[in-house]
Amino acid sequence: MNQQTFFEELQESGIALDEAASQLEVSGATIRNWIKTGYLEQISRGFISVESYNHFKKNVEGSEKF
C-alpha cells in the first residue's frame, strides 16, 4: 500500500478533528477532551472515526451535560 492510498482510506473512514469541531460548533480543544473521555475515538493524529462521530451525534449530543 502506498502512502497516497493509505491517506485516501483514512479520509474515507475518518473525519478531521477541525471538521468535527466545525460541524458540532465547538472548539478543537473540546473535541480532544471528548476523545480523552471516550465520547469520540481517535483513529490517527487529527482524525476521529466516522462511526464514533455518528454515534456521538445520534446518542450523546444534546442528551448529556458536559
Give a structural overview.
The protein has 66 residues and is α+β, with helices and mostly antiparallel strands. It has one domain (11-60). 59% of the residues lie in helices and 14% in strands. The protein has four helices and three strands, in the order H-E-H-H-E-E-H. The chain has a three-stranded antiparallel sheet. A hairpin with a 2-residue loop joins strand 2 (42-44) and strand 3 (47-49). Helix 2 (17-24) crosses helix 3 (28-36). The longest helix is centred in the N-terminal third of the chain and has 11 residues, at 3-13. It is globular, with a radius of gyration of 12 Å. The mean pLDDT is 84.
Tell me the layout of helices and strands.
Blueprint: H1 3-13, E1 14-16, H2 17-24, H3 28-36, E2 42-44, E3 47-49, H4 50-60
Antiparallel strand pairs: 1-3, 2-3
Helix pairs in contact: 2-3
**Numbering strands along the chain, what is their spatial order in the largest sheet?**
1-3-2
Radius of gyration: 12 Å
Task: Encode the helix/strand succession as letters.
Answer: HEHHEEH
Q: What coarse outline follows from CA principal-axis ratios?
A: globular
Q: What amount of the residues lies in strands?
A: 5-15%
Count of individual domains: 1
- Main sheet, how many strands, which sense, barrel? 3 strands, antiparallel
Helix fraction by DSSP (H/I, runs of at least 4):
55-70%
Structural class: alpha+beta
Number of strands: 3
Give the rounded overall mean pLDDT: 84
Q: Would you identify the regions where 5 or more consecutive residues have pLDDT less than 50?
A: none
